[in-house]
Design goal:
single chain; alpha/beta; four-stranded parallel sheet
């Protein structure tokens, strides 16, 4: 069913899924796990740039005045779940919250506030059973 194609990923797969979701409208929904989605500027300010490799830093994105929060309007109103962790070195929680605020605004402007969710659990960069089950339940409800 071409109307029900979703994308998901953990870590490197999460950021790849995020960028794919941002540019390919054929993807109907996304569930991302500790994928570094948040604010690249925040990550750089906090000095954790070595955690990610070239896959993370899209050439010209920041120089062009963009960051993950600025991409949020391209995602709405398609369902998006971002699963994060409080101790994820790959994306500070404050960066996740910056993305959350921008995405919430974009989704609500499109009348789709319920189609966006951020779920954060205590702990390090990991794909946990609880995150996986949360995403599976959420995707079934959205698709």
């Amino acid at each position: 069913d071409a109307e029900r194609i979703g994308v998901s990923g953990f870590s490197l797969g999460g950021i790849a899924a995020f960028y794919g979701f941002a540019v390919d409208e054929r993807l109907a929904a996304a569930a991302l796990f500790c994928g570094g989605v948040g604010s690249m500027r925040r990550l750089i300010r906090e000095g954790a740039t070595g955690y990610h490799s070239v896959y993370y830093y899209v050439p010209g994105l920041i120089a062009g005045g963009l960051d993950h929060p600025a991409l949020a309007p391209a995602l709405a109103p398609r369902p998006l779940l971002v699963c994060g962790a409080t101790e994820d070195r790959g994306m500070p929680l404050e960066g996740v919250r910056e993305f959350e605020a921008a995405a919430r605004k974009a989704y609500e402007a499109r009348g789709a506030g319920e189609r966006f969710r951020v779920w954060v659990e205590e702990g390090p960069h990991a794909l946990t059973r609880s995150a996986f089950e949360t995403a599976a339940d959420w995707l079934v409800g959205e698709m």
